[in-house]
C-alpha cells in the first residue's frame, strides 16, 4: 500500500556519467512507471540539489500520484520546494519575499545547482524528437549570475535561454507563482493564514487566473488612453501642415507661370538658331551623301549588334529571374512553417477548450444525477411521512381514549382525596393533645446527633492535616503504577525535549474540601494523565514504557504555553453570582491548567449548595450563559444541554479518584458519615421545629384543610369539564408533506437546469472538435504545399543551369559583333574627315542650335519662319513678362521681383513642385494614420468592453462555483460552509476593496456553537481544515501536472489531520493523472491506515548537529 523510500544524501560521493539522470536502465524504468500510471505530461520525476541551502547533495526520486515528504524541523523540506520553484524559473523574491538567488548558495561554496527532471510522455509531449522521454532543467547559481539550460534525455543541451524554459512551462501549464500550484509556508501565511478578507480575495483571483485577465483589461485601457493622446497630436500636426502646404502650393504656381513665359522666349531663340543653321545645312547635304554609304554599313552592323545585345540581355534576365525564383523558395517554405506552428498552437488551444468543456459537462451531469437521486429520496420520505401521519392519527385516537380513562381515574382520586382530607382533620384534632410529649422526645434525639457530628468533624480535621503534598503520589494510586511511571521519567529525563508533566493529580490542589468529591468526579481519569509537548516525546515515552513492560497511561500530546492560561471574563460565568470550580482548584504547574481546561472545560463549571439553586441556573430559560455544568458537594452533577439530564446520586461514601487532598479511604468514609449525620440532623431539626410550631399553627392548619377541600372540589369540576371537552374532540392532527414534495420538485428542476447546461457544454465541445479537425486539415494542406514548392525549386535550379549556358553563348556573339561595328566606325570616320573641310561654319551653327536644346528635346519645326518674324515674337513675349511681374509685385509686396531679371530654372520649379507634393503626401498620410488609429481605438474599446463584461460574469460565476465546491468539501466532514464575495469594484480597474469571507457552520454538541461563524473566530484545527478545504476548492479551476503544499497540516490535531488527509486524498484520486507533493513534519504512515491506494512516503535525512 505504501511505497516508502529514503532520500539519498551523498555530499562527497563522485557522480558517475550516465545516460540522462538515472542511467539507461533507470530512465526506462522511471519512464515506464510514469507511463503505466498514465501520468500527465510535465510531472516531476526527480529533484536534485547541490550546495543548495543546507543540502550539500540531495536527490529525490518522486513517483506518480501522491507523494508525502516528512522530516524533522530543519531537515530542509522547504528547500526541496524552493529548489523546484527556482529550477522552473521563479525569482527569489517570488519564492520568498526579501531574498536573493545568491542566498540559496550553501555557506562556504561558490555555486549552487538545482536539477529537475520532467516526464515528457503522454499525449501532451513537448518536442519529443529533441528532448526524448524526459526533460532535464538545470539552473546554476553563483554570486553574480546564473545559468539556466534544458537538456534532453541523452544529456544534449536543447535550450539555453530563460524564455525557452518559460515556453516549456507554458506548454505544460506550469505556473509555480500560482499558490494553487505551489503553496509555500510564506504564501500560506499570507493568503490562507491571513484574516484580511482582501488578501483572501487576491488568492481567489490568482487561483482562477482572473487577475491576468484584469491586468490585460487595464493594459487595454492604457493603450486606449495612449491612442487618444496620439489622435490629439495628429490633429495639431494636421493644422500646422495644412498652412505649410498652402504656402508651398502658391510658390509653386507663381514659379510655374514665370517659367512658362521664359520657356516660350527660349524656344523662339532656339528656333532662330535653327533658322541660321538651316541655311548652312543645305551646303552640307552634298558632302553627307558621300558619307551615307559608310553610314548605312555602320547602321547594319549596329542593328545586328543591338539584336545580339537584346538576346544577351534577355538570356541574362531569364537567368536572373530563375535564380530569384530559386532563392524565394526558402522564404516561402519558412513562411509556411511559421503558419504550421501558428496552426499547431491554435489546434492545441482548441483541444484544451474541448477537454475543458468535456470535463465541465461531465461534472454537470454528475451533479444532475445526484440531485435526481436526492429528489427520489425526498419523494420516498414524503410518502413515508404520509403513512406516518395516518398512523399518528390512529395513535392520537388511542391516546384520547387513554386520557379519557385517566381523567375518570383522576376524578375518582379527587373523591378519594376528599375522604382522606376529612380523615386527616379528625387525626389532627386527635394528635393536637399529644404534642408536648413528642416535642421532648425529638429534642433528646437532636442532642445525640449533634454530639456524634462534632466527633466525626474532629476526626476529619485530623486526617485532613495529615494528607500533605508529599503523600499525593501514594494517595493517587488506584491500581495504576504511578510511582514507576514517575521514576521512569526521572531516570530518562535527558531523552525528552521537554520533561513530561504528570500525573496531573500531583500538581492539583483543592482549596475548598467541601467540594472535593465534586471536583474529583469532574476531573476523573485526567488526574492520572501525563502532558507531553510533542509527538516525538510521546513516541520516546511509549518506547520506554514498552521496554519497561509497563502499561500505557492516558497521554495528552499538545504544545501548551508555559504560562497561566488567560481566560477573558466574557467567556466565564458571572463571578458575582456563582462560585467557579476553576477558582476552587489550585495548579502548581501552568500546563496542567491548560490540559484540564482544554479537556474538562471546568472554566464553565459552577459549584452550588442545593438542587433548587442548580435548577434555577440550568433549567430555567435565561438562567445564565457560559454555564455548562453545576456540581453539588456530594458529586451530584447537573448538565446544561438544552434538557434536564442529571446523573444519579451516588451512594453515601462512594469513592472517587483522589487529587491529593483528603484522599484516604478513612477520610472518605468519615466524610460520608458526616454528610449522613448532617442530613439526619437537618431532618431531626425540621421535625422538632414542626412539633414546636404545630400548636401555634393549629388554626392555620385547619384553614389549610378548608382551602384544600375547596381546591379538590374545584379539581373535580375541572376534571368533569375536561371529560366533556375530550368527548367533543376528535379533530385530526394537522400534518402535511407538501414541504418535502416542494423540495423534491426543486431538486428535479435543478437537475434539469444542470442537464441543459451539460448539453450546452457538449455543444461547445463538438464545436471545439470541429475546430481541431479544421486545424489538422489546414496543417496537412500547408505541408503538401511546402512539398510542392520544394519540388518546383528543384526544376527551377535545372532551368537556371540551362539559362546560364545560353547567356554565355549570347555574350560571345555580342563580343564578335562589337568588333565588326568598330571596323565600320573607323571607315565612317575617314569619310567624315574628308568632308570636314566643307562642313565648316554649317557645323558650328548646327552645334550651337543643338546645344540650346534640353536633354531629350526634339528639334523645333521652323517651317517658313524668317529671322525678322521670330525677333518680333520674342519682343512681344518680353513685354508680357514685364507686365506679369508688375502685377505680382503689387499683390505680393515685391516678392515676385526678388529674382531680378534672372530667369527661373526648371530645377527650381521642380524643387518647388516636389516640396509641395511631399508636404501634401505627408498631410494625406497623417489623415490616413489618424483614421487608422481611430478605427483601431474603436475596435480596442469594443473589445475591452466585451472582455470586461465577460470578466465580470466569469468572476461572479467562478465565485458561485467556488462556494459550491467549498461547501461540498466541508460537508464531507460534517461541516458546511460558504464563500461570501463582495465584488466591490465594477470598473475592473482595482479590486483593493473587494473581499472574500469564509463562513463555516459547525455541528457541535454544544447548541450555542451550532451557528455560522467567520473563519477568524474558529479554533486552530477547524480553521486550518477550513483554509485547506478552501484551497482544494480552488483546484477545480486549473488543471496542472503537479501541485505542492508545504506543511498543510500545521495547527491541526490528529483528528483534523486525519480528516484533512482524507479530503486531500479524495481530491487527488479525482485527479489521478496529476502528481501531488505534500511536505509535513509528521510521519504519514499511521495516518493512512485503511487507505487501499498506493501512496508514496519519503523521509528526509535528520539535520546534522555540528
Major beta-sheet overview: 7 strands, antiparallel
Q: Give the strand order of the largest sheet, numbering strands 1, 2, ... along the chain.
A: 2-4-3-6-7-8-9
Strand content: 5-15%
Give the overall average pLDDT: 76
Q: How many β strands by DSSP?
A: 24
Number of helices: 22
Structural class: alpha/beta
Q: Which shape, going by the Cα principal axes?
A: elongated
Distance between the termini: 37 Å
Percent of residues in helices comes to 55-70%
- Give the uncertain stretches in residue-range form: 1-21, 465-477, 641-664, 730-735, 894-901, 1004-1009
Gyration radius, to the nearest Å? 54 Å
Could you characterize the architecture of this molecule?
- The protein is α/β, with parallel strands linked by helices.
- 61% of the residues lie in helices and 10% in strands.
- A 7-stranded antiparallel beta sheet has the order 2-4-3-6-7-8-9, sandwiched between helices.
- Strand 8 and strand 9 (157-159) form a beta hairpin.
- The two termini are 37 Å apart.
Q: What labels would you give this structure?
A:
1106 residues, alpha/beta, six-stranded parallel beta sheet, disordered N terminus
